[in-house]
C-alpha cells in the first residue's frame, strides 16, 4: 500500500531538511568484511585487496577491511593479517577491523590497525548462538576489549545486531537495544551502528527502535545498518535520516547475508544508497561510477550479478 500523499510529502521534507542541516552523510563500507565473510568458497587475498583498493578510489571515508576472528569460525577471514598489510591505504580514509575478543585485539594492534569495531547483540538468542554467552556476559568482554583498545589510542566503533528482529527470539524490544547502546557508549565507543541483521525491519519497527535509543544517545553517536531481505533497507535508512542520523553502513554490490537466518540477504547496496542520497541532495563524496566499477569487479569474480539495481542499470550505460 502506498503512503498517503500528505504523509509521504511530510516525510520527504523532514528527511531532506535533516540532511541539509548537516549536508554530509558518511558511508561506512562493509562489503569486504561483512559482505564476504559468509561466502563459502575461498576468495583470494589478492581479490580482497583489489576490491578494497578500488573502494579506496571512490571517495569513501570509512572502509572496513577484515576481522581478526578465529579461522575455525570464519574461514574466509583467515588471511586477515595479509589483507590489512597489503591494502594501499590512503590518507583521510579509516580502515577499521572487527575484533571479537582480546586475542583479536592483540592481532589487530600488531598489524597496526588504528580503528576497531566490537559487536554485540540485542538478542539473547543470537548472542548465545553466535558468541556462546548472554548479553550481560558479552558486555563484560566488550568492556575489557574497549578498555585495552583505549590504552593503545585506538578508535572504537560498536555494532549491535538484531535491533528489531531475531531468528531465534523474534521481535526485539527497543529498550534492549538502548541498554546495550548506552553501555557501549559509556565504555568508550565513539559511534554505535544499529543493525537490522536479518532484514526484517519496517519503517515502523525501525522508527520505534530509534526513538528509544535516541533517549540515551544523540544522533551523531549513531549509525544505521540495514540488510535488504524484504526490500525495506532503503526505506529504513530513510527513516534513520529523518531521525537525524547521518552515518549509514552499506555493502558494495549488496554483498552479505546472515548465517543464522535462512534467506537473509546482504546489506543495502552502496550503489543504491549513494544514488538515493544524491537524489535527496546529500553530499557523500562518493564517485558513483567508480563505485559501480568496484561492485562489478567483485561480482564478476564471484560469477554472479550485483544485488544492486543501480549497479546493473548504470553499468549497462558505461559499457
TrEMBL record:
Classification via Pfam families: HMGL-like (PF00682)
Superkingdom of source: Eukaryota
The entry's keywords: Lyase, Metal-binding
Residue intervals of the Pyruvate carboxyltransferase domain: 25-292
PROSITE patterns: HMG_COA_LYASE, PYR_CT
Gene3D superfamilies: Aldolase class I
Catalytic activity: (3S)-3-hydroxy-3-methylglutaryl-CoA = acetoacetate + acetyl-CoA
Pathway linked to the protein: Metabolic intermediate metabolism; (S)-3-hydroxy-3-methylglutaryl-CoA degradation; acetoacetate from (S)-3-hydroxy-3-methylglutaryl-CoA: step 1/1
Listed GO biological process terms: ketone body biosynthetic process; L-leucine catabolic process
GO molecular function: hydroxymethylglutaryl-CoA lyase activity; metal ion binding
Protein EC: 4.1.3.4
InterPro entries: Aldolase_TIM (IPR013785), HMG_CoA_lyase_AS (IPR000138), HMGL (IPR043594), PYR_CT (IPR000891)
Family under the similarity heading: Belongs to the HMG-CoA lyase family.
Protein name listed in UniProt: hydroxymethylglutaryl-CoA lyase
Annotated source species: Ceutorhynchus assimilis
Amino acid at each position: 500500500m502506498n503512503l498517503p500523499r500528505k504523509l509521504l510529502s511530510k516525510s520527504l521534507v523532514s528527511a531532506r531538511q535533516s540532511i541539509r542541516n548537516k549536508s554530509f552523510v558518511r558511508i561506512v563500507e562493509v562489503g569486504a568484511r561483512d559482505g564476504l565473510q559468509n561466502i563459502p568458497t575461498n576468495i583470494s587475498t589478492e581479490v580482497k585487496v583489489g576490491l578494497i583498493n578500488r573502494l579506496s578510489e571512490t571517495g569513501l571515508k570509512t572502509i572496513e577491511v577484515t576481522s581478526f576472528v578465529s579461522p575455525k569460525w570464519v574461514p574466509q577471514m583467515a588471511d586477515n593479517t595479509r589483507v590489512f598489510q597489503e591494502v594501499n591505504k590512503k590518507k583521510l580514509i579509516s580502515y577499521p577491523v572487527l575484533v571479537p575478543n582480546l586475542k583479536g585485539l592483540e592481532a589487530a594492534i600488531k598489524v597496526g590497525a588504528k580503528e576497531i569495531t566490537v559487536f554485540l547483540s540485542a538478542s539473547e538468542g543470537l548472542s548465545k548462538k553466535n558468541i556462546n554467552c548472554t548479553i550481560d556476559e558479552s558486555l563484560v568482554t566488550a568492556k575489557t576489549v574497549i578498555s585495552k583498545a583505549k590504552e593503545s589510542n585506538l578508535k572504537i566503533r560498536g555494532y549491535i545486531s538484531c535491533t528489531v528482529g531475531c531468528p531465534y527470539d523474534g521481535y526485539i524490544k527497543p529498550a534492549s537495544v538502548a541498554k546495550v547502546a548506552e553501555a557501549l557508549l559509556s565504555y568508550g565507543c565513539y559511534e554505535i551502528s544499529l543493525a537490522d541483521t536479518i532484514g526484517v525491519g519496517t519503517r515502523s519497527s525501525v522508527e520505534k527502535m530509534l526513538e528509544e535509543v535516541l533517549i540515551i544517545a544523540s544522533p551523531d553517536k549513531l549509525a544505521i545498518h540495514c540488510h535488504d531481505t524484504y526490500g525495506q533497507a532503503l526505506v529504513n535508512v530513510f527513516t534513520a535520516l529523518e531521525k537525524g542520523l547521518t552515518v549509514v553502513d552499506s555493502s558494495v554490490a549488496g554483498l552479505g547475508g546472515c548465517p543464522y537466518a535462512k534467506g537473509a540477504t546482504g546489506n543495502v547496496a552502496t550503489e543504491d544508497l549513494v544514488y538515493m542520497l544524491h537524489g535527496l541532495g546529500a553530499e557523500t563524496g562518493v564517485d558513483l561510477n567508480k563505485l559501480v566499477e568496484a561492485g562489478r569487479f567483485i561480482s564478476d569474480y564471484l560469477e554472479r550479478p550485483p544485488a544492486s539495481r543501480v549497479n546493473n542499470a548504470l553499468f549497462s550505460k558505461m559499457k
